Amino acid sequence: MGLTRNALQAHMVGAAAVVLLAACSHRGEPQPKSAPAAGLGPKEGLVTAIARDGVVVSGERYFGGLADDAPLIHLFHQGRADGRGEYAPLVGWLNEHGYRAIAWDLRAGGDVFGGENRTAATVGDAPAEYCDAYADVEAALTAGAALAGRAPVIVWGSSYSGALVFQAAAKLPDKIAGVLAFSPAAGGPLAACRAGLFLDRVTAPAAVFRPASEMALESAQAQRAAFEAARVSFHVIEGETHGSSMLVDSRAGADRSAARALVMEWLDHTVGKRR
């Protein structure tokens, strides 16, 4: 992807200030240790996977009646959130454009969008910091392979999960056809799993989207330089809404159709043409 790992890490050091995470603690109230049965099941679109440390990872299918060979997007949420809560306003739009989706609940999450994070609710004593949630991302991709079939798979991350999807693309290159990251976090709790540690091994086409307000930080500008040096396309979206919510009119307080069109143009150009 262009730079050596050392050079990329040097570029990303300055991005440590661009954390913009909803919280640094994810456990909250004591959680029950019971969990739903694992496997891929049709009930209410539920999809479950087992992480390598035994955590049951829950997701919701949004396939919109599309064919089995339609591209499949794995949607991962920001801190203190859940998959259904963050992506409910976007999954219909994705389906309309020919993309199936699974919105996953990662263990580092909560109810910031008013939904329930089913994975966080059953994580028990397992570690549940941001970097720990990578195990959930990997489990989701493994379990979702049966549903993807031969269709291209895209990983989509928001804030902290925007960093984790680059790790997935580096470690699972045969499973991933494209990477989308919205406000990928880089500092503090993400020090051990920030995107810059993996960029030199990412071969899939990738794109990063940030709101203009975040680009006022020098650290964000340094992060942009690192991504672009690694041939990751970088897009600045008008406004100040963090993460994937920058595409949602009601959350941004403005018409975001142009931003959505930009994302869809990238998807159709790099992945959709394989349909």
Descriptive report:
With 275 residues, the chain is of the alpha/beta class. 29% of the residues lie in helices and 16% in strands. It has helices at residues 5-13, 83-96, 134-148, 160-171, 218-229, 249-252, 257-270, and strands at 46-50, 56-62, 72-76, 100-104, 153-158, 178-182, 206-211, 233-237. It has an 8-stranded mixed sheet, sandwiched between helices. Helix 4 links the parallel strand 5 and strand 6 (178-182). Helix 1 (5-13) runs antiparallel to helix 5. The longest helix is centred in the middle third of the chain and has 15 residues, at 134-148. The relative contact order is 0.18. Mean pLDDT is 86; it is low at 1-44.
**Rg to the nearest angstrom?**
17 Å
Number of continuous helical runs: 7
Straight-line N-to-C gap:
26 Å
The total beta strand count reads 8
User: Into which percent range does the helicity of residues fall?
Assistant: 25-40%
Output the structural class: alpha/beta
Shape: globular
| Biggest pleated sheet | 8 strands, mixed
- Strand share of the residues? 15-25%
Unreliably modeled segments: 1-44
Mean pLDDT: 86
Quaternary state reads single chain
The largest beta-sheet arranges its strands as: 1-2-4-3-5-6-7-8
